[in-house]
What does this fold into?
Amino acid sequence: MKSSPEIRIANVSDAEGVSRLLKSAMLTYCADSGISSSMLEALTESIESVADRISRQTCLIAVQDGEIVGSICIKDIPNPLVYSFSDKTYKYLENAGHCSYISRFAVKESYRKTGLGIDLITRAVELSKEKGCRFALLHSAASNKNMVDFYGKRGFDLIDFEESRGYMRGLFANKIS
It folds into this structure.
């Protein structure tokens, strides 16, 4: 039996592998969400941009036999109201304080439904808690039932919707205790 992938903090030298994984995973995300691939900046992002994100945020990667098979990034958000697009979101986040924002979550297709995605999102929330965050926030296409269900089962509440990227996205929040 194959061992589980090692999850570790990404280095700038991992940017090319992370970029390759993101592009592959985001094409599947677009298809599953019924949205055009032209709507996702992750699909046109340069390796240099990925390297810059890795240097500024906490990015975790899962590595198996030298290949990056999973990734997730966690950004510190001192003011979560930057994600407030409505009165509903404002009321939810107005007293939230320090939060994290999770993005660029990807798992290689052959590793989906193995628990790797659960491990990555769990580690991201744990890191957010260690940093003193009160909430972990993320967006996902509202039309992607698999992802909406996945986040719901991991303690994320769908708190609002917005269309700033040209498609309906849900804003999810995990209240960290």
DSSP finds five helices and seven strands in the chain.
